[in-house]
Amino acid sequence: MTVIKTIRSLRADYNLTKTRADCYLQCIDSATASLLQRHSLQIQTLSYSQAVLPLTSDQPVPAGCAVAIASDRCTVNLMLKGIIDVEKEVAKLLTKKGEVEKAMEKLREKMAKSDYAEKVPVKVQELDAEKLRQSQTELEKVKEATDNFRKMV
């Protein structure tokens, strides 16, 4: 179920609503690979994948895949090459990066004001600090996704 959830999550991240993609499941041992092989039809159906191919750690994963870790025993690789428009996705991510950076800059300016610590309630200060941390994490994910797409080109 974790593998299916991870595949669905990847599909949502890359907006693959109608398209079926090949899915390569990189397993750390042959026992995990055989377990996934036995359930590959169910995984394929529930994750709306074109094909589900369990691989052992010594088998290479094809280039052009998005990667997500399902568990300590299995990594999901979803084939995106030829399915999505890489340039369009990179442009979207760069726009998103600009928006996140702008929001972070506004928040930093707000927090840097001299009377911020005295006038702003502690609860609001904590929320602002949390927003900044979340924005930083989002920015890192956007940069990582952009790098992954650029490797596909």
Automatic annotation (TrEMBL):
Coiled coil: none annotated. Gene3D superfamilies: Valyl-tRNA synthetase, C-terminal domain. One of its GO terms (biological process) is valyl-tRNA aminoacylation. Its EC number is 6.1.1.9. It comes from the Eukaryota. InterPro entries: tRNA-bd_arm, tRNAsynth_Ia_anticodon-bd, Val-tRNA_synth_C_sf, Val-tRNA_synth_tRNA-bd, Valyl-tRNA_ligase. Keywords: Aminoacyl-tRNA synthetase, ATP-binding, Ligase, Nucleotide-binding, Protein biosynthesis. It holds the Pfam family Val_tRNA-synt_C. GO terms for cellular component: cytosol. The keyword ATP-binding applies. One of its GO terms (molecular function) is valine-tRNA ligase activity. It is an enzyme of class 6 (ligase). Residues 85-146 form the Valyl-tRNA synthetase tRNA-binding arm domain. Belongs to the class-I aminoacyl-tRNA synthetase family. This is valine--tRNA ligase. It comes from Champsocephalus esox.
